[in-house]
Design goal:
This protein is mainly alpha-helical. The protein has a domain of 33 residues. The relative contact order is 0.06.
């Protein structure tokens, strides 16, 4: 258990005055995720409707 609490030094030393690089997010990433969410919602609703219609067709035929 003693080895789990040890911290390892980074392999490349950084100078104390240099901040770590900042990665800027893509400008349209939120829009992409909204579009993907809507596609998933529509696919889920379509799947539920298909299952219900198939059940109704098998049950009443």
């Amino acid at each position: 258990m003693r080895g789990m609490s040890e911290t390892h030094e980074p392999s490349t030393p950084t100078s104390p005055g240099t901040p770590p690089p900042v990665v800027a997010p893509a400008p349209n990433s939120e829009r992409l995720y909204q579009a993907a969410a809507w596609v998933a919602i529509i696919a889920g609703i379509t799947l539920i409707l298909v299952v219900l219609l198939k059940f109704a067709w098998v049950f009443w035929s």
